[in-house]
Amino acid sequence: MRRSNLPAELNRFVGRTAEEAALTALLETSRLVTVVGVGGVGKTRLALRAAAGAQKRYGEGVRLAELAPLRDPDLVAYALVEALGLTDHTPRAPREVLLEHLAERRMLLVIDGFEHLVESCAPLVRELLARAPGLTVLAVGRRPLRVAGEAVFPLAPMDEADAVALLAERAAEAGAPDFAGTGTGTGTGTVVAPEPGTAAVRELCRRLDGIPLALELAASRLPLLSVEQMLHRLDDRFRLLADGERGALPRHQTLRTAIGWSHELCTPEERLLWARLSVFAGPFDLEAVEYVCGGPELPPERVLDHLGGLLAQSLVSREDTPAGPSYRLLDTVAAYGAEWLAALGDTERMRRRHRDWYMGLATWCELEWFSPRQAEVAARTDVALPNLRAALDVCLEFPEDAHLAQHLAGTLWFAWVGCGRLSEGRHWLERAVALESGHEEARLKALWVLGYVAVLQGDGTAAVAALHECGERARSSRNALAEAYATHRMGCLALLSDDLPRAESLIGRALDSYRELGELNSNVLMGQVEVAMTRAFRGDLEGAVAICREVREVCEERGELWTRAYALYVLAFSAWTREAYGEARELLTECVSINHTFRDLVGLVLAIELLALVTVSEGDPAEAALLQGAVVPVWDTVGIRLFGSAAFDGPRALCAQRASEALGAEAFDVAVQEGRHLPLDAVVERALAGRRDPAVGGAADATAPRPFRTARSAAVPGTRKPAGSPTGKGGEAAG
């Protein structure tokens, strides 16, 4: 895990020297500090600045959790798990995962935008602080959490000098002619207002109450208007607002004045786009804007121009993400846009268009998961997660859309299973299947995906319930593909339960059905790898290798990585049995890299366990013991260690035996304990670095016990290389 996920500053931080010093000092004495203030006063920017400056004091670094996009209070703990970069495959509640992870860590957690979720956020923060003595929380919102021990840091608007400096800096950045040469870019010097009109500049800053967002909005207009013209327009706007909102707080009035005035200066098309953009949660890309916001009044081909106009006026911000450039509305600006959208009577229609786009994105991602774009799909899903959550919320909100909730939750199986979000996936899937949609196909898919998630979580009871219902309903409705998926996942459950004959029979039967139906995708290939594992565990290593070589060929043809990693695991074990340790290490290095990229902890820990066995065989028992120790806490987040399976436990047990014999029990335990305290990223880095201090690696003892026996292969139905789909069906959409 990276030490920080704080965003980079896009422009120079201006002023607030005293406030930054005071907030930094408060963090040294208080474990819960909440920065409060009116919208647009700069709470988030100051908090992130102070957090970045304090990183060195926290051994586990600083993590930012943005809660503003959330609507469902039940998702607060999931959002914190995501922010901490955790992957948990167990059926445990995310609150338990957080408590366990933070219990012995020294970390600063920044929680931004919690005010609409305070009823669920406050108890969680209270419990985390009570159970994790090394945790410090820096919260940012419009009101306190009201948790015992909370130090509230009220952030006032900028004083006159800082306000003038900020206005001048941002106006110079925007290219305002009267401010040319006054900005300092990314430097550290002092920004001053131009001599001509300094009094007017100060008056403008006073009128805007020193609120940074209001100042930045004003600065974006200074290339077009003089300061005096701006003051005149603000006078008119203040009078209008005073007539309409006499009960509003003065500073709230000021911000609404600045935003409303910016709204009036926008073109009609920009105002409409602003209102429609308010339905997005978190970052969004241009394609999404063109679809969701486009229409007769706002032609999609003109959306980019209007978006550029909002960007130039500081109403929209641009950010770079792993999936490419994205845009975002500030929360305060989005709230204003949402009011206008409601006044237009268009909120529900726009929320449904937003839902439709993200359902389409999920469908595309599912299809492209089985392609060379798999890593891109993982990145796009990660960035789109807040909007996917919003789409699921809309589906679940309207009873007539229950089938869409089931379809979307099932379609996102690759995000839940392939990208390490089993717990959140189960949350959405259980909510979706609890509804009676009247659309059998959508329900069946949600059921087998729910069963798959429960299998991987080690919850056999829930898995059997979901898969049995799926199988029964699939047979009744003559849905052979859904029945095949249910059968496949029942076989997966048998594999993890060491019922190997049943596993091979069920998965083989499912593979035969997939072939008859023309189904070829990552799930089908994973089924072949699972058959290979049953073969290997039953002693037919040669047959297992033959299957996995075929799977690897298909993966290379299709650019598939996720399933490829599991095939490499089996091939690496084969190389180890042949004492080809270099080949085994090379295969496992690729396996570890792929699984870490996709946050697939199951595949990752299996690969590292086998890598430890290779390492001890190479003659480095200390490093092998350290790697074994390193995966112990990872297994705690996966579930029952090695699924409670004696078959999967083979490499670990043999490695422990050999390393302990070579080192002695005491030295072995010391190395294991050292590994237990390594962060996951450090473990992966160590594994990818290869042998650290290679000794003379001897051949494996031919008489030593082996986790897998070897035997001649025998044909198993459904394990040949799958043919292409004669019906054109492919990807992951069917079922």
Describe this structure in words.
- It is built from 32 helices and seven strands.
- By secondary structure, the protein is mostly helical.
- The protein has a five-stranded parallel beta sheet, sandwiched between helices.
- The chain is globular.
- The model is unreliable at about 185-190, about 240-250 and about 690-735 (pLDDT under 50).
- This is Regulator.
- InterPro entries: HTH_77, nSTAND1, P-loop_NTPase, TPR-like_helical_dom_sf.
- Pfam families: HTH_77 (PF25872), nSTAND1 (PF20703).
CATH topology type of the domain at 17-154: Rossmann fold
Radius of gyration: 29 Å
Number of strands: 7
Structural class: mainly alpha
Q: How much helix, percentage-wise, in residues? A: 55-70%
- In spatial order, strands of the major sheet run 2-3-4-1-5
End-to-end span in angstroms?
35 Å
**Beta-strand fraction estimate:** 5-15%
CATH homology-level superfamily of the domain at 17-154: P-loop containing nucleotide triphosphate hydrolases
CATH class of the domain at 17-154: Alpha Beta
- Overall body shape: globular
Q: Give unreliable regions as ranges.
A: 184-191, 239-251, 692-735
- What is the makeup of the main sheet? 5 strands, parallel
Give the CATH architecture of the domain at 17-154: 3-Layer(aba) Sandwich
Mean pLDDT: 84
Number of helices: 32
